[in-house]
TrEMBL record, chain A:
InterPro entries: Aromatic_CoA_ox/epox, Ferritin-like, Ferritin-like_SF, PaaA_PaaC, PaaC. It comes from Sutcliffiella horikoshii. Gene3D superfamilies: 1.20.1260.10. This is Phenylacetate-CoA oxygenase subunit PaaI. Pfam families: PaaA_PaaC.
Automatic annotation (TrEMBL), chain B:
Residues 9-79 form the MIP18 family-like domain. Pfam families: FeS_assembly_P (PF01883), Zn_ribbon_PaaD (PF23451). Signal peptide: none annotated. This is Phenylacetate-CoA oxygenase subunit PaaJ. The lineage of its organism: Bacteria, Bacillati, Bacillota, Bacilli, Bacillales. Residues 108-157 form the PaaD zinc beta ribbon domain. SUPFAM superfamilies: Fe-S cluster assembly (FSCA) domain-like. It comes from the Bacteria.
């Protein structure tokens, strides 16, 4: 199955619905995690990490922009409005990705948790890698092309987070304890990242991406391998403690984030920056 | 016939559009120009973004439009970024690699079978270098250090569909 153009995608209402549902998930996930990452600028553990992390966030925002562009091409509206103008309830990012980095704000007493950030970003990047590999065989050709592009940049992101994860899990002192606590906190929401949402079955039926079950299986395999390397065991019990973002469930953290990140856009939505 | 002449003129003009941060290398030498089509008095230029989050893309697009408008050959100039084929670092031309080196940035190395890569110092040519940070000041560059001449330097990051 190969759908090469917007016109073809629009011919089948069920296909169009599944395709846009998936694109919103991919776009909203990258958009909010890139924002959370960007809040670390100037606060990362050392200067080289500051350089690396901001580069990763910039790439990730670029990936979100490509997915929003595909939605714009499909007639869903202006991509800037899709990124900045939608309310929290209309967003379908996983709840895990919207959560704050820690207490305080960027400007006042930021007590951000680096262990939580390393675990959240590593797990998310690994899951994204599995999805993007599957998207390289998507039935929607424009999405397939985007996936090839994202995948090349993602290679370096995954390498980066794997390195941090391994080093902190095998380090002395409080590192291991803090990593274990972070792993538990991330996993209790991680089902939300792997979920393909209410249209999941249709998304897979239309061969847009592999099934949720396949993605979950591959994720568990990758994690089991990594955990063995750091002499820990992967606790495969994942949940959606704060709700399913794919259904529009969100926390106050997302409202606050949207207020901040869309402030400039909302000051004049017609302006070209 | 005239169209073919005009296409050549567009390619020549695009040699004048440099990377906004590396003024020795043109967008043609970076391998960012995929296709130029001329129909009647319209020109369409398809370009490949290096990295998606690169903030220079809009500047490059505008510079390309300006340069082509200066030719005064066309009534309409259209510049698009496309994702297929994806940009890879082996698209940089031989001339582009020389110009990068002149600027003090090592050209992108090739990946070996294990995914490892090595870069020689663009200043002294020493092979005695270490990778300091895969991520550099821009998305497309990495930071390295030369133990030969004791200089930090940058290299274009290798990007391949094999990754």
């Amino acid at each position: 199955m190969n759908i090469a153009t917007v016109e073809e995608a629009k011919k089948d209402a069920s296909y169009y619905k599944a395709l846009t549902a998936l694109l919103y998930q991919l776009a909203d996930d990258d958009f909010i995690i890139a924002y959370r990452g960007s809040e670390w600028l100037g606060l990362a553990p050392h200067i080289e990490e500051d350089v690396a992390f901001s580069s990763i966030n910039q790439d990730t925002m670029g990936h979100a922009a490509m997915y929003y562009q595909l939605l714009e091409d499909l007639g869903e509206g202006d991509m800037d409005a899709l990124a900045h103008g939608r309310k929290a309830a209309d967003r379908v990012n996983a709840v895990l990705l919207e959560k704050v980095n820690g207490s305080g704000t960027y400007l006042t007493e930021p007590k951000y948790d680096w262990a939580y950030t390393v675990v959240r970003h590593y797990f998310y990047t690994q899951a994204k890698k599995i999805k993007v590999e599957a998207l390289k065989n998507s039935s929607y050709e424009p999405l397939k092309h985007v996936a090839v592009k994202v995948n090349m940049e993602l290679y370096y992101h995954l390498l980066h987070w794997r390195t941090w994860f391994r080093q902190l899990c095998t380090a002395n002192g409080e590192a291991k304890t803090r990593m274990k606590a972070a792993i538990d906190r991330v996993l209790e929401e991680f089902d939300g990242v792997l979920s393909l949402g209410p249209s999941g079955v249709q998304i897979t039926q239309h061969q847009l991406i592999d099934s949720e079950g396949d993605i979950r299986l591959r994720f568990t395999e990758e994690m089991t391998n990594m955990f063995e390397k750091v002499e820990m065991s992967f606790p495969a019990n994942m949940g959606m403690k704060s709700g399913n973002g794919r259904k529009g469930d969100h926390t106050k953290d997302l409202d606050d984030a949207l207020l901040t990140l869309s402030e400039v856009y909302n000051s004049n939505p017609a302006a070209v920056w | 016939m005239q169209e073919e002449v005009n296409i050549m003129k567009v390619w020549d003009a695009l040699q004048q559009v440099k990377d906004p941060e590396i003024d020795s290398v043109s967008v043609v030498d970076l391998g960012m120009v995929e296709a130029i089509d001329v129909k009647n008095q319209e020109v369409t230029i398809q370009m490949l973004p290096t990295f998606m989050g690169c903030p220079a893309l809009e500047i490059i697009k505008k510079n390309v439009e300006n340069e082509i408008n200066n030719l005064a050959l066309f009534k309409k100039v259209q510049v698009y970024f496309i994702y297929q084929p994806p940009w890879t670092s082996d698209r940089i031309t031989a001339q582009g690699r020389i110009h990068l080196q002149d600027f003090g940035i090592a050209p992108p190395p090739t990946l070996d079978d294990s995914g490892e890569w090595h870069v020689d110092c663009p200043y002294c040519g020493s092979t005695y270098t270490t990778l300091d940070n895969i991520f550099g000041p821009t998305a497309c560059r990495s930071i390295l250090y030369c133990k030969g001449c004791k200089n930090p330097f940058e290299a274009m990051k290798p990007i391949s569909t094999m990754m």
